[in-house]
Specification:
- The chain has about 100 residues and is α+β, with helices and mostly antiparallel strands.
- The protein is about 35% helix and about 10% strand.
- The chain contains two helices and four strands; from the N terminus they run βββαβα.
- It has helices at about 25-40, 70-90; strands at about 1-5, 10, 15-20, 55-60.
- The chain has a two-stranded parallel sheet. Strands 2-3 form a two-stranded antiparallel ribbon.
- A hairpin with a 5-residue loop joins strand 2 (about 10) and strand 3 (about 15-20).
- It is elongated, with a radius of gyration of 19 Å.
């Protein structure tokens, strides 16, 4: 899970921090989200270290209220993220779920 703040002050030349103007962080965050999506593909047979099973990006803007951008999408993506994690855990460690009526494979 990652929180991206579109209103976060950024460091400029000379070590000065200032809030972003308009949507200037959009391209930076878009590249970050693409890179994160590329890492979020840890599934058999691709078990490489450094990969993760999934990601959930919460986007906020501290320059406005409410802070959370696209709340309905954020909730849906969060539920999908948690479902994916539990699904992968069920697949890898089925014995953890035996007391919930699941039969061993």
């Amino acid at each position: 899970m990652v929180v991206l703040d579109y209103g976060a002050p950024t460091k400029r030349r000379g070590g000065v921090y200032r809030p972003p103007q308009g949507n200037e962080l959009d391209p930076v965050y878009a590249r970050f989200k693409q890179g994160l999506a590329a890492l979020a593909q840890r599934r058999p047979p691709l078990w490489a270290q450094g990969l993760v099973e999934g990601c959930w990006v919460l986007e906020i803007d501290t320059r406005q209220a409410p802070l959370l951008l696209r709340p309905e999408e954020a909730v849906a993506e969060g539920e999908a993220f948690l479902d994916a994690l539990v699904g992968e855990l069920r697949r890898r460690e089925p014995l953890l779920f035996l007391d919930q009526g699941q039969k061993p494979l």
